[in-house]
Amino acid sequence: MATVLWGMILYYFQSRALCFLGMLIILCIMISRVYLGVHTVDQVVGGLFFGIVTVFVAISSQGQKLFHNWQTGKTITYWLLCSFAFIFYILLSNEVQPLIIGLSGILLSYGLSLAYAKKYMNSNIRCNLISAVSGMFSLVLINKAFPKIYFEQVGLVDGIFLIKYIIIGVIIFAFIPSVSLNSKILSRLIKQG
Q1: Residues 69, 48 share a domain
Q2: Residues 111-145: b if buried by 16+ CB within 10 A, e if exposed
Q3: What mean pLDDT is predicted for residues 60-87?
Q4: Alpha helical stretches, state H, the chain
Q5: Residues 87 and 21 in one domain
């Protein structure tokens, strides 16, 4: 995730200082994962490689076309890609990790929110203070509504975790853009009226 984040930042801003900072942060994350014993060297190198490939696919003309198609309502490739990733993970993994459940929730909510994203992306309106504040408030509210709950059944915990991240994703991908769009339209109407 760090490689994808910093790779995209470097691609769009193309600054030597950012390049150095990004590579330093990625290297420190890789070293910390191995040092803490949560990943092996081959896992972090594999993650780095996967992140670099993801960035190159995202900035390619085909990747841009695919992303544009998702935002204009042609989501079949999105759902196929998610299904492939989930099946691939299930086949190769020995156990379900909480991070994967959270990521699955975000991916599901993004796919469900693409109809809202289409309306938002086709306008020239971007996030404003009202939507940012309401979005942050709603994220805090969701985190308070879904505290860390410990059940005997792991499946129940995983299900609640998945629902939490689906709601967080809907807030990010649908609620905040809708509030931003509506508040800009409302402020224009007030100025005109």
Answers
A1: no
A2: bebbebbeebbeeebebeebbeebbeebbeebeee
A3: 84
A4: 2-13, 16-35, 41-59, 61-71, 76-92, 98-122, 129-145, 154-170, 176-192
A5: no
pLDDT of residue 85: 83
pLDDT at 31: 93
Task: Round to whole Å and give the CA distance between 147 and 167.
Answer: 14
CA 181 to chain centre: 21
Domain that holds residue 7: 1-59
pLDDT digits (tens, 9 = 90+) for 84-103: 888 887 787 777 676 677 77
Indicate the residue among 19, 34, 59 that finishes a domain.
Answer: 59
| pLDDT for the residue 191 | 65
Domain count, the chain: 2
